[in-house]
Amino acid sequence: MSLFNYIIKQTNLSSNSVKNTLKLFEEDCTIPFIARYRKEMTGNLDEVQIEEILKAKLYFEELEKRKASILNSLEEQEVLTTDLKTKIEATDSLLVLEDLYLPYKKKRKTKADKAREQGLEPLAKIIMAQNAVNINQIAQKYTSDEVTNTLEALVGARLIIAEWIAERTDIRDYIRYQFNNYINITTSSIKAKVKEEKAQKFKDYFDWSESLKKIPSHRFLAIQRAEKEGFIRVKLEGDEDRIIQHIQRKVIKSSGVCAEQIELAIADSYKRLLKPSLGNEALQNAKKRADESAIQVFAKNLKQLLLGAPLGEKRVLAIDPGFRTGCKLVCLDESGKLLHNETIFPHPPQNDQKTAIKKISTLTEAYKIDAIAIGNGTASRETEALVRKIHFKNEIQVFVVSEAGASIYSASSVAREEFPNYDATVRGSVSIGRRLQDPLAELVKIDPKAIGVGQYQHDVDQNLLKSALDRVVETCVNAVGVNINTASKSLLSYVSGIGEKLAENIVEYRANNGAFTSRKEIKKVKRLGEKVFVQSAGFLRIKNAKYLLDDSSVHPERYALIEKMAKNEGKKIEELIGNTHLLEKIKLEKYISEEVGLPTLKDIVAELKKPGLDIREKAKVFTFNQNIRSIDDLRVGQLLPGIVNNITNFGCFVDVGIKESGLIHVSNLADEFVSDVNNYVRLHQQVIVKVLEVDVARKRIQLQLHKS
């Protein structure tokens, strides 16, 4: 099967879409670029569909590479038959491929290998022929110095038969199907460990049984972690009698002494070879499903977080709260540049609130502050209460901002490079302030795993996780667009076609030559050639550019087309931009060509109506209930304001202004069945919740989403 046919089979996409998308990949085009600027070629595929093609392409290439390796090995062993070669070349599954190769795979010396060395394979063949009447008499002929009696001869022959049975693809496929559909995962506690404090969070799994096929991602990963930490044992349980009877029907074609020997070999084959091998495979498949599900949740959360509402270009005073070590203050200008930093001590043990209030008031006036950002960690509520006491001369908005990952950033090489002369506390405070100004621009500097919006992120496949999260960041950065004159190296590196080294070169060019004044100037950056320019230009913005289209998502390759539109309407480009009435009157069909179709033309018109429009919402002020300071203040039935701070498959967690987040279980999100939590809430959404249950001892809070 060709790559082209394989991808069509896997994706069910049209042949033209697949053919042209593959061509674009060969030209090193990125997924965001293809999705945004090559809609006519792909048949208007979105990023998800384009990624499906890429995944299918990578799988096929891995499959073909493995086939070549296996065929080469079989030829070297001189065991490659025409039939086997045909089967190998026809398969489109790595799993089937490995099953076909299994009998010839070089492996550690087995018990069956030892039996063969003892000359017992002919006896095994006689038994499998199922014609012999007196097998003990025949077995006597195969005794030797190593095999001293007929019993040992029959045991050795059965070991060989057991291996033959275990290598049969039809039997493996049947057991694989049974395990993947009907087996249960069962757990039991390890008595010596159950009293440990760490074990208590896994106590639900001290005695648990559930269908392996239906077990939710979070539960499977929790069980795996509990097993890894030594609190439980895990085993698979199914209808073994049915499986063994099926194998018997497949293998045994007679009755009598040979059948009895084969029955013994089947039982041994299943217990010693098939169940361990295919059981592990079933667990690996369940782990893969759980990983994919958890990663999908993580990716959705990350996307919502990255596309969180920015305050915009406002001056911010950021506070990283603390008790003993004080509250670190930093003042940032509209672009996030650090203007000032110092520490105040309004909380115990110093309790110097008077000086703290005076200092905050003075700084807000001196640096013309528009908003205050308070980190949501230790002493956050106390600091927020302090700030809200202050009577500012001008209106100043107060926001509580997530600190998740700020400490990771403050100790990173990126932070040290940005602020070589400041300590980690200052860097962390700057990060809090910048997150309010532009969450996307700041959060791309942090490893997504450290942002705290995932579930079991350290238990899932790390390569899959990194790949998925990098794609999310890339998608978000390119969807929003990047101001090339203010963007950090971290942010620029995610722009289509750029990467880390070119991002560094852009920052270096900016430092040496000042701000870019046009998109054309981008070509002057060292090693940024025409191919990279085409991939990246549409996502890079030049604010206050002389040529207005340079601050839009319109690609430079379409500038001439827009100039033609403007000329045909008897207008200048600046008169066309933002003129909704005029733009809607343009007959787009007149501008269709081989390269440009209606999808691209509609995108262009939409952009011209509101060029450079940020797709994100604007930041909104939020206040927690000031009477709730700890879990002890919660009462069943209370209605509280909260912020969704994590989303899982089983519900979402809500910050109500105390150390512990409360859980809204899926059953308490709506009156209807909830299949996808993201359809009901989004990360950082401001909600009203009702307290259903408070377990102070276990520090667990059950909430219900209140319909406002």
Automatic annotation (TrEMBL):
Enumerate the InterPro entries for this protein.
Answer: HHH_9 (IPR041692), NA-bd_OB-fold (IPR012340), Ribos_protein_bS1-like (IPR050437), RNaseH-like_sf (IPR012337), RuvA_2-like (IPR010994), S1_domain (IPR003029), Tex-like_central_region (IPR055179), Tex-like_dom_sf (IPR023323)
Highest taxon listed in the record's lineage:
Bacteria
A single Gene Ontology biological process assigned to it is: translation
Q: Name one Pfam family in it.
A: S1
Please list the GO terms describing molecular function: mRNA binding; structural constituent of ribosome
**SUPFAM superfamilies under this entry?**
Nucleic acid-binding proteins, Ribonuclease H-like, RuvA domain 2-like, Tex N-terminal region-like
**What GO CC annotations are associated with the protein?**
cytoplasm
Q: Where is the S1 motif domain?
A: 637-706
The entry's protein name is: S1 motif domain-containing protein
Give the source species: Mesonia phycicola
Q: What taxonomic classification does the UniProt entry list for its organism?
A: Bacteria, Pseudomonadati, Bacteroidota, Flavobacteriia, Flavobacteriales
